[in-house]
Amino acid sequence: MEGTGYGKAILIGEHFVVHGARGIGIGIPRKTTVTVAKAPSLKFLFECGDLLKEASRRILRKVAGNTDYEISMESELPASAGMGWSASYSVALASAAGKAAGRQLTRKEVAEIAFEGEKVFHGNPSGIDNTLAAFGGVMLFRKGKGAEPLKVGGKFHFVIANSGKKGPTKELVGMVAKVKETRPTLFGRMMEEEERMVDEAITALGAGDAEKLGGLMERNHALLVELGLSTPIIDEIRKTALENGALGAKITGAGGGGCVLILAPDGNKAREIAERLGKYGAFDFTVSS
Ligand code: MEV
Predict the structure, then answer these.
(1) Residues 102 and 193 in one domain
(2) What are the CA-CA distances from residue 174 to residues 104, 114, 122, 134, 186 (Å)?
(3) Which helix (H) or strand (E) holds 154?
(4) What is the per-residue DSSP string for 72-139?
(5) In terms of domains, do 9 and 143 share one?
(6) Domain of 78: which CATH number?
């Protein structure tokens, strides 16, 4: 039986969502596909580490009550790059295992089960990655409260470029938690600023206002820089994108490497920026209602 999970990009709010702020994420048209079949015991037909094995065991136990499955996996997403590979895997596995166990799981249930896998991968995840991996689309998310689709009033042309350096999500989430602990006033101000951006982004998305949204992505990136999450390659990607007409460019995901999400004014510009950033594996895609 087969299951799939989407990749994701975070438009506004990574890290702050872990601490209860709202965030906006978008599903990206790249996916992970997992196939499972009943077997005498758990067997992985692809190379994988201990975390993935443990996450898989937890998901299988939750869905099927046992781990006697053979698992194969194919992904269009790079791992640890900020595109939500682990969540797309967890969602794909939960969905495939549900079918194999004869259960009719809703997407909400699949997202909730995948969250168990995300906890193994990331320690203290907000749940935004597995929610987007299950639903795709453009979603407003709040930890513990789930997600709702947002109105998109036009076409938005995005590019994603991969810095090539893996961002260690668990460590970076821990690093930001330290900032919250040691500098609560500063962090509180950042959370308020981020919440304002979410409100403005909801309006910009609904109105199809790409210029406004690009400006908000820039402001969100500045907060992530203040938290020490950018890198010289991310700065370089942003510079190239902005010099070539991008409306905004920001870290997406945990940072410290990983990917940059870029907003272009139109489809031609998006393709041109993706070409300019070809050495970073850049690709463009459109989000609309
Ligand atoms: C990772 O894609 C997003 C973070 O906010 C972590 C999380 O929300 O679980 C950094």
Answers:
(1) no
(2) 36, 21, 10, 25, 17
(3) none
(4) EEEESS-TTSSS-HHHHHHHHHHHHHHHHTT----HHHHHHHHHHHHHHHHSS--SHHHHHHHH-SEE
(5) yes
(6) 3.30.230.10
| 31 sits in which H/E element | strand 23-38
**221 and 139 belong to one structural domain:** no
Judge whether 217 and 12 are in contact, CB under 8 Å. yes
**Closest CA to ligand 1's atom 9:** 125
Q: Which residue has the tokens 């951006």?
A: 197
pLDDT recorded at residue 289: 84
Q: How many structural domains does the chain have?
A: 2
CATH assignment of the domain containing 245: 3.30.70.890
Please pick, among 68, 129, 199, 266, the residue that the annotation labels catalytic. Answer: 129
What is the position in ligand 1's atom list of the atom closest to the CA of 143?
A: 8
Segment 19-37, tens digit of pLDDT: 999 999 999 999 999 999 9
